[in-house]
Amino acid sequence: MRIILFGPPGAGKGTQARLLEEREGYTQISTGDIIRSAMKNETPVGKEAKAYVEKGELVPDSVVRKLAEGAIADEGYDDFVLDGYPRTTQQAEWLTEFGAAHDAPIDVVISLEVPDDVIVDRLSKRRVHTKTGDTYHLEHNPPPDDVDPAHIIQRDDDKPATVRNRLAVYREETAPLEAYYEARGTLVTVDGVGGIEDIYDRITAALEAA
Ligand code: AP5
Ligand code: MG
Question: Has residue 8 been placed in a domain?
């Protein structure tokens, strides 16, 4: 199955995509993770992306398109969860064309609905592991005791001013994609507020129904 996990920053896309990978065997394709890894390794893409990510702006469509399409091709065009792609109408249209060209259309778009106050709490208390990429929340999902605290950091773009800009960019450029996928009949909305396991159960139920 080909799945998009859609939603604002902090909606829990990464958390849920990881669980779908661990438990259901889908591969998580996170353009955010790919970009952060490129930035860390100072590749040409990483160097180009850095200024955008740090301001909470979107990286240019043409750059992200190559990353996403390359990752989908690497997965054999199936059994993946897109996390953070597409994010603009142009990206969505390219993805539709790409799916048609490879006989691999998106089957379902799960939209996680989370209000702004919950998002700000989640992002301000998010911590990530520098080596494994595991994501934690200081209250709801704290790093286990056996994890070295030296490896637990806050993402640079989780600072309050950048979070505000990411939310504004989401509303302006990404939220309209809900209507795009609704019109195509693939959109399913899921309440993204509640415990991580409860939300996981809602998502898997939606996938079974799709
Ligand atoms: P990206 O990394 O994709 O960031 P994002 O979309 O802003 O989403 P986040 O990763 O912040 O949130 P999430 O939904 O994954 O939530 P998480 O599971 O971590 O993109 C970063 C940047 O890269 C962009 O700003 C842009 O510059 C660039 N980029 C990426 N893709 C692009 C594209 N397609 N086009 C252009 N540019 C692109 O959860 C958040 C927190 O909440 C965690 O602490 C977690 O533990 C906690 N949490 C999760 N679920 C729950 C729950 N149910 N209850 C309590 N806490 C919870
Ligand atoms: Mg994420």
Answer: yes
Using 50, 70 and 90 to split pLDDT, how confident is the model at 18? very high
Per the structure, the count of domains in the chain is 1
* Structural domain for 107, as ranges: 2-26+79-114+168-209
Nearest to 2 by CA among 77, 102, 90: 77
Rounded CA-CA distance 121/132 in Å is 23
Residue ranges lining ligand 1, Cβ < 6 Å: 7, 9-15, 31-32, 35, 52-53, 56-59, 64, 84-87, 91, 122, 126, 135-137, 140-141, 157, 166, 194-196, 199
Residue written as token pair 């059994």: 79
The structure tokens 């209000």 sit at 115
**Does the residue 180 lie in any domain?**
yes
What CATH number should be reported for the domain holding residue 178? Answer: 3.40.50.300
pLDDT at 94: 98
Q: Considering the chain, what is the average pLDDT of its residues?
A: 97
Cβ contact 65:94 at 8 Å = yes
Q: How far is the CA of 210 from the centre of ligand 2 (A)?
A: 24
Asked whether residue 20 is assigned to any structural domain, the reply reads yes
